[in-house]
Amino acid sequence: MKPLGLLAAASAISLLLGVTVPARALIVFDPNNYVQNVLTAARELQQINNQITSLQNEAQMLINQAKNLANLPYSSLQQLQSSIQRTQQLLAQAQRIAYDVQQIDRAFSTSYAPATGSQSSQMLVTNAQSRWQNTYAATQDALRVQAGIVGNLDTNRIQTSALVTSSQSAGGALQATQAGNQILALQAQQLADLTAAVAAQGRAQSLEAAQRASAQDLGREQLRRFLTPGQGYQSSNVQMFH
Questions:
Q1: Are 91 and 145 in contact (CB under 8 A)?
Q2: Handedness of CA 81, 90, 107, 226 (dihedral sign)
Q3: Helix, strand, coil shares of the chain as percentages rounded to 5?
Q4: Measuring CA to CA, which of 90, 102, 122, 172 is 20 to 30 A from 197?
Q5: Tell me: the pLDDT tens digits for 194-209?
């Protein structure tokens, strides 16, 4: 006889004889309770899986944030500052009339001032020589500034290559931003060099134009003196041979 049959027969005999069977001796299978337990376990397992996924996402987010906050390992600041300083030094070495408003005003009130009848011929010649020297020095200064800027081109080429490489290999937003900012700084340095070259060339051209204008004014004054009675050419006897 099968065990369940024996258990059922024992239970029937116990009821007939009035004998009570302990509850733990009865094995009862409840399908509904079993299904509920399985569903509960499945839900708990799903919650655990969701928590694991959430932790993984948070860990990846922290990794991405660390990448985004990582500084760019390359910096071109020192090289760019050195290039700008070299150009500034060349501008500061301007000869005779510097890039200074007071010096310019002083020069145009003296050596570039209109010629007058009260000035001696020697003063006119001295002012003319000073103007020529100013133009000569300004031309030399412009060439020196241009040479310095050309010397910066190789540095700019190296920095451009390094910054583009750093930008392309940036691991996060901060590195990409920093690379972009340094590229903008490089462009600003190149613009500063261009401004310096234009200023130096413009200074030379302006002094040359001022020299021409002063030369025309000097020519008019000399002509006026030549045509003025008593101030023009005076003939005299010259003895060439003894």
A1: yes
A2: negative
A3: 75, 0, 25
A4: 102
A5: 999 999 999 999 999 9
Give, rounded to a whole angstrom, the gap between the first and last alpha carbons of the chain: 173
User: Are 137 and 95 in contact, with CB atoms under 8 Å apart?
Assistant: yes
Question: Nearest to residue 113, comparing CAs of 99, 125, 100, 127?
Answer: 127
**H-helix or E-strand containing 86?**
helix 77-92
Region of residue 2 (phi > 0: left; psi between -120 and 50: alpha; otherwise: beta): beta
Please give the pLDDT value at position 129: 95
Please state, in angstroms and rounded to a whole number, the distance separating the CA atoms of residues 58 and 56. 5
Q: What is the DSSP string of 159-206?
A: HHHHHHHHHHT--SHHHHHHHHHHHHHHHHHHHHHHHHHHHHHHHHHH
Nearest-angstrom CA–CA distance, 173 and 217: 65
Rounded to an integer, the average pLDDT of 31-40 is 82
SS3 23: helix
